[in-house]
Amino acid sequence: MTSVLLVANSDECIGTGEIADHLIACIEAAPEISQCRRCGTADLQTHNVESDSLTVVYLPEMQPVASRMPDLIRVSETIDQIVGLHGLSHLVVISDAAVYGARPHNPGLIPEDQPIKHGASNRIAAAWGDLEQLVTARCSAIDSVSVTLLRSAICLFPGDRTYFGRLFQARIACTLAGHDPSIQLLHPDDFAHAIVCAIARSPGGVYNVAPDGVIPLRPALKMAGVMRFPTPRWPQRLGRSLLGPSRASPIDQIEYIRYSWTVSNSKIKEDLGFRPVHTSPNALRSFLDGYANERSASAPIAQYDDLGLDKGYLDAYGRTLFRFLNDVYWRIECVGAEHIPSEGRALLAGVHRGFMPLDGVMSMDMIVKHTGRYPRFLIHPTLIKFPFQFNFMTKIGGVIACQQNADYVLGRDELVGFYPEGIQGAF
Question: How far apart are CA 128 and CA 150, in angstroms?
């Protein structure tokens, strides 16, 4: 049986004091755990723990709520106190999936082995990376202590005043014009379940904590009854500069509503037995209901493609722009569509014809119309870097060209389209 100590300052850790209370209730209910107590960092030196096998769950202190960044000075002081506790054998630290950064180069579902240095140009990502390096460095010299880092997707708690909590409770939200990235929203119960799994089964290491399923930002705001006010990036930079850091989130936060930064939960499922119950739309509905009831568990809510495909969006273009290009502008003839399998995985390879990769777009449109299947074409990150082009390429089924995305699509017995010569073939 394991004894657990939850270290959290109610007003300074991730979210609010209700997080710690909720986590304690869930942890105590786990059969693998004998007891769970909570203390603030100020009480660590005087806190007596009568256990030879102690697991500490640490919710890091945060900078002002708007920043979504850990307070590294206070974190350093707290870690020094934690590693001095008698009987410490396992330290579980709550990190953030924001550590990967939000970039056009991100694969659809980011695995734990993606280097976090790729997102280090973003101050929020860099701060979480520094926290993880600090924790690892302080504990590396202690052989008897294993360290588990849980990189959590967005988790919305009652009364949440973090960036996304305020975003979904506002009347008007400033979004980025032409960008509708997919996001992951984690239910507090699933968040607590992941921590219990880490306490009971983790040998140490890094794990993403995320729900099954995503939700694009636009329908998420619509579900919350929030009016979107899309703007270019520069007015938001100007507004944050005028308001100052105490009243507005840093400009780095905009990147997390500009590009997708969804993460894979495969590792924590396979290694620790984590099984999320709530999808991202379910979690948002529960948050909006104040967790007073769980009608979202039974009410039907739309599900969305993990990599951003919007079949309704693609079909609408197929009836309008693509139809004009196919029938009038290029007068395309389709030969050999019967060779495309009606089911199962397949690779479709072609050769670029022209400056812009519209050959891939038109091939996809014809495949949809002739077979009813929606192929996913591998694309260069540059094609989703700019406003509106991001939405267009993502929603018609384009995915960043990388091994993870190709494996994911083929693993679901779908079609992958690609041009072997890459971007050079378009020039």
Answer: 11
